[in-house]
Specification:
Distance between the termini: 30 Å
Shape: globular
Largest sheet: 5 strands, antiparallel
CATH class: Mainly Beta
Radius of gyration: 19 Å
Helix content: under 10%
Number of helices: 1
Structural class: mainly beta
CATH topology: Methylamine Dehydrogenase, Chain H
Number of domains: 1
CATH architecture: 7 Propeller
Amino acid sequence: MLKRAAALFLVSAGIATWVGCTTSTSRYVYAAIPAGSQIVAYREDPNSGVLTVLAGSPITAGPAVQSIVIHPSKKFLYAANSGQGNVSLFTISSTGGLTEVTPRTNVGTAPTLLVMDSAGSFLYVGNSGSNNISVFSISASSGALTAVAGSPFPIGIAPLNMKLSPSGSVLYVTGAGSPQGYIEAFSLNAGSATLIQVFQPGANPYGLAIDPSGAHLYTANTGDNSISEFTINSDGSLTELSGSPIGEAFSTPLSLLVDNSGKYLYVANEGSTNLGAYGIGSDGGLTLLTNSPFATGSQPSFITSDPTGKYLFVGNQSSPAIQSFSLATSTGTLTSVASYSVGNTPASIAVTP
C-alpha cells in the first residue's frame, strides 16, 4: 500500500481545452493521476465498455490531483488538489473536453476526497492533512463554489473515505485511529454537518459502500482483512449485523462497490490482485459468490461503475492502469474487457452520468 498511502498525503477562464469524437450515447471516463498532476480522459463505448483516449489527454491539473467528481448536469468536474490545498473546477464540453475555470477554491490541508449529493447541490471535501471537511454549495448555472456557514467542520480523524447516503442527509467518514480506526456519521442540514455517531468496525476501515436503497453500509478493513456489515437506522446511525465483521480469504481489502441492482458487493483486494464478489442478502448479510474472485492487474485500489451498472472500472496501482470489466447482472460474474495504461498510479475515476 505504499503508493496509496503516499497519495493520501493527495486568469483566464480557460487553461486547457481539448475535444474528442462523440456519439449521442457517449459517456466520458476521467482518472486522476497524482504523480503527474494530470487527468486522463476517455470516451466509453456504452455497448462494450471499451475506452478510447480523447485527443489532448492527459491534461494538466492541480498539484497532486487526488479525487474527482462530476456534477449530475454533466457540465462540471471538480478535482481535489492534495498538493496545493484547493479544488479545481472544470467545465465539460459536449464532446468531453475540459476547461479549467480559475481561480481555484481554497480548502483545508491535503484534500484527498470529494463527494457530491445526487442533486448536485453540495460538494464535500475531505482534508486529510487538517482532519476536517470543507462543504460548499454549488451554483447550478456556473458551478461556482460557496462555503457553507461553519465550514470546515472538524472531524478529529484523517479521513480515509467518505460516502453520502442516497438521500444526501447523512455523511459517513472512515478514518485511521488507535487501536483500530473509526466510522463517523454526520447528519446534514443544508450542508452543515453534525456528528451523530462514532463506531469502531474492523481494523483500519478504508473502503466504504452503501446499497442503493440506503439500508446497509459496508466497510473494507485493511488491517485485519475483513468486511464489516451494518444496518442503517432511520436517523442515519449504524447497527452492526450479527456475525460482522466477516473474514476475507484475500489480502488487504481496500475499496468496495455495491452494483446498481443492490445484489452484489465487489471488493478490490490490493494484496491479492483480484476482486472479491459477494451476494447481498435481504438482511444485508454477505455470501461469497462461487465464481469469485476475478483477476485484476497489480494492486487494485478502487472501483467505479458507469451509470448503467453494466461496466466496472478498476484502478490498478502497480500496473499502473485502468481496467474495464463487464458485469453479468444475473450471476455477478465479471469479465475483463481491456486494460489501459495511464503511466502513473491512478487515484480515482469519475464517469459522466
